[in-house]
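Notes, p. 3: input format for complexes.
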Amino acid sequence: MNNRSSLSWWQSGVVYQIYPRSFQDTNGDGIGDLDGIIQRLDYLNDGTPNSLGIDAIWISPFYPSPMKDFGYDVADYCDVDPMFGDLATFDRLVEAAHARNIKVIIDWVPNHTSDQHPWFVEARRSRDSAKRDWYIWRDAKPDGSLPNNWGGFFGGPAWTWDEATGQYYLHQFVPEQPELNWRNPDVKAAMFDTLRFWLDRGVDGFRMDVIGLIIKDEQLRDNPPNPNAPADLPENAIFHRLQQVYNMDQDEVHEVMREIRQLFDEYEARVAIGELWGPLERWVKYYGEQGEGLHLPFNFRLMDESRWEARVMQGLVDAMEGVLPPFAWPNYVLGNHDRIRLATRFGGQAQARLAAMMLLTLRGTPTLYYGDELGLENGDIKPEQMHDPQGINLGVAFTRDVARTPMQWDASDHAGFSSVEPWLPVSADYATRNVAVQGAAADSMLAFYRALLWLRRGSAVLQGGSYRSLPLHEACFAYVRELDGERLLVVLNFAAAPCRVAVGENGRFLLSTHPDRAGTTDAWLDLRPFEGVVIAL
Ligand code: GLC
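Output follows (537 residues plus alpha-D-glucopyranose):
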């Protein structure tokens, strides 16, 4: 059994994802920057319950980049894009965060570089280039067609023809994101050096972008068709019409995971988080056979679920808990920069509130997405306002811009995000849905997040206790967290109707989604629509 003192910071703590373009602009270009993050650190954690009280920030990429995929196309892994600041700003950010006991996790994009990265510029110079094999090049088939049938996540084929050298190169995102050849030891060594560069600078961990993609089938075989592909997919959605068998999640990837972990273990208390999807039994392998893999393969199961049903959520949690070996620490994500906003996905503010209680009371590390603590809903992005290549290529229904709109700080122009028109439009509700207004209102989403986070901070059982679900009622997801004889009961009513459950013992309310709830409960508990409660038994 874990007790609090035996947990690492990344087990007991809560991570908050910042999309740096959209958090706080300080230099008046309509784009957020690192100084903006520094300015807002007290909002995240000033050591008091007037702040959010998170333990770590994960910052999406701020590397020099042509921004074809908004920073996920990296032109230099060891610098900061001038639009975000410079290395000195970054050092100040780490220092200021650490002074507030906030850990700093940064993004690492190992699967592909920008086509402007000097490595690729050199590789495409000629077939004899010393760096040619750092990327994945193939001849056309004898009939002139593409090397295989793979598609890109954002539509179109995964291959682009390089006229000058007469070969195709592989890219599963935009053509300006050529994929590195991780079977080449020099690539591995060079990329490991980039990890060391930042670890030596004091970063506390990495979130590793599409880490399961770095090793592909050695023969690059065709992917089989996907019999479950939706019929209404756009014409160019080749990727979605195929099963992802040979382009990702190859068994050999775990050898690299072990090496990455060994590198992390040379340093004190750093965390390796990976962006991973796939079925549970494949996903769990990324922890390693004995815990020698990643610390946290991101668990997106609750984020990728749009059915708002207690039994569905419970099923996802129980199944994950069921496959985790004892050494593996769970984690949960409800929103990020690639998915629609959780308040939109789950159908409204009341549902978003209940979802927050679930995320912050389950066993495992929660990762919050900036703005979800205000209940931000999808931004209203017109086709001509789209920036995201996924939306531009596949249609406005696919744009990720809706979850990347500027943070809403106050009711002033541009929501206090910037002094000029921001790169993406501020949502129309900013005058009322913002930090200043919600921070002053006891019943706001922000006040509720703060209460939840500070409850969790003060509770060893929420941080480290065991988890056991209870079949109390069809409409409720209920579970007990337990540690050293202390027991907490969480009951979440997913229904838009009231619900009466037999708790069977007396308890004391620690928190409810409905702020008027206080005092004690007896054997029967009456929950209002979408009400969730945490009860000390
Ligand atoms: C990951 C990122 C996403 C990016 C893609 C390519 O899925 O989260 O934003 O577009 O990788 O790097």
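The chain has a mean pLDDT of 97.
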